[in-house]
Amino acid sequence: MRTKTMLLSALLGTLGSVSLMAQSTNVYSLNAVGYITLTIPAGFSMISCPLISSPDNSLNTLFPAGNAALKGVKFYLWTNGGYSSAAAYTTKWISGGNFQLTPGAAGFFNNTTGVPITNTFVGTVPSGGTNLLYPGYNLIGSILPVDGLINTNLLNYTGQVAGDKVYTFSNGAYNPAYATKLNGSWISVPNLTSLGEGFFYYNSTTTTNSSWVEVFNVGQ
Fold this sequence. Notes:
The protein is mainly beta.
């Protein structure tokens, strides 16, 4: 999934609190506005939206009505350890249009058109937040609009334990070279993640939530 991003303005003023749903909490705005253009290939992709859109991050807002290129696509949101009912698009979302793809959340986008679809997200850049990683599988994305190697740029935090795993998804299949946490280090690191890409994180503990905390620094 190819992506492009550009910051349009950075107005550094008083931080304003923004309440988010899904798996993201304690996210604030620096009034830095930007856009991310996704090129979504045919078939299934894991996508996320690391921007705070207006008036919300619903599918109705992120993929608005009237886009003929979206006819027939479906979206599957992962919540509470399983998929929600699929959202389906004709000339608009006929179901699931209120699904929230907030920064830090991710879902499966099924492009049934047979050709790549281009879609642009516009919104405020979060200053950070926390993804709670529940025991078992979590379908997540970066809260911040960043990309890079999963083991350095994205998941370099202290909550990982031996047995944790990361699964990326590309070309219609899970990346077989998934990352595994072993003896304090990641092995078999997956491909680079792109802006707006989601992935599965497997928290191998049975009772303990883990926290992936991200903070935006001006100039990063």
